[in-house]
Amino acid sequence: MKHEITLAHLTAIDLPPPKLIEAAAKAGFDGVGLRLIQVTDTSPGYPLMQDAEMMAQTHAALRDTGLRVSDIEFVKIEPNTEISSLLPFLDAGTDLGACEVICAPYDPELNRLADTLGRLSEEAQTRGLGVSLEFFPWTLVPDLGSALRVVDRAGPDVGVLVDTLHFDRSDTTLEELRDVPLHRLRLAHLCDAPVQEKYSTDDLLHAAREERLPPGEGQIDLVPILCALPDTLPIGIEVPMAEQTAMCGIEAVLDRVMKATRNVLDATALHLAR
Predict the structure, then answer these.
(1) What's this model's pTM, rounded to 2 decimal places?
(2) Model confidence over 253-270: pLDDT tens digits?
(3) Per-residue pLDDT tens over the stretch 74-101
(4) To which H or E segment does residue 100 belong?
(5) Cα–Cα distances in angstroms (integers) from residue 177 to residues 180, 182, 214, in the given order
(6) Mean pLDDT over residues 119-140, rounded?
(7) How far apart are CA 93 and CA 48, in angstroms?
(8) Which run of H or of E encompasses 272?
(9) From start to end of 165-252, where are the E strands?
(10) In the chain, domain spans
(11) Which CATH architecture has domain 5-273?
(12) How far is CA 28 from the centre of its chain?
């Protein structure tokens, strides 16, 4: 398998971009995703579009390590989202050499959500960026099917992002994943977690934002999901482990996550070769 392996910022969200890039390089990642917009009140964002000094430090870290920025995140599409306010964010993505902008569905009026995504995609395309919508089980876009309906309305250039955690907790099937048009898939997120029969919204949010497991250390059947994805699709490793990071430090966590990721990708390659 020829996946590029990148480090999603949420895995080490307390590291500012230059430090994240250095840590990712040391652990063996090919690139990083950067969170330039704060998502929750309890987790940081790093608005490089407003911080020239940190932007310069980020460029220096990219040059020194040879890593690249795969994506920037994330835009919560809400009823009052103004595309004009996001243009500096998009410009920062272009400056960093990113390929994709990750968006989240927080407008309950799905036609308006799709229209906003479409307009954002148009602006992103002029800057060499793609736009992908990630689905979350606690939203009105809870699964792959609903995400595809939104992006179909949004336009031909809008993608979907499949995160293995949200895939497992949704009603999405492997058949649906295999049937996604290739041009809609430009990035996936990989992690593991315990599996339960039912989840409360608090369960879903806690796992999503704070406590996941490295690939292969939980109960999600990852190999079939990976087999259903294109074998050259970039894979972002999104494994926030707040307790382990506090106990062992981020360097040990990233080493563990990278080793686990390689083991699962090797297992997937063996499965496909049979």
Answers:
(1) 0.95
(2) 999 999 999 999 999 998
(3) 999 999 999 999 999 999 999 999 999 9
(4) strand 100-105
(5) 5, 10, 22
(6) 97
(7) 9
(8) helix 250-273
(9) 185-190, 235-237
(10) 5-273
(11) Alpha-Beta Barrel (3.20)
(12) 18
Strands (E) located in 15-95: 31-35, 68-77
Q: Measure the CA–CA gap between 116 and 228, rounded to whole angstroms.
A: 29
Phi/psi class of residue 128: alpha, beta or left (left: φ > 0; alpha: ψ in -120 to 50)?
left
Q: For residue 13, what are the contacts with CB-CB under 8 A and spacing of at least 6?
A: 35, 43, 44, 240
Cβ-count burial of 157 within 10 angstroms (0-12 exposed, 13-18 middle, 19+ buried)? middle
- Decide if pLDDT at 1 tops 60: no
Instruction: Return the closest-CA partner of residue 78 out of 49, 101, 109, 121.
Output: 109
State how far the Cα of 137 lies from the Cα of 228, in Å rounded to an integer. 20
Token code pair at residue 88? 């500096």
Residue 138: strand, helix, or coil: coil
pLDDT digits 0-9 by tens, 156-178? 999 999 999 999 999 999 999 99
Cα separation of 47 and 203, whole Å? 29
What gap in Å lies between CA 222 and CA 120, rounded to an integer?
32
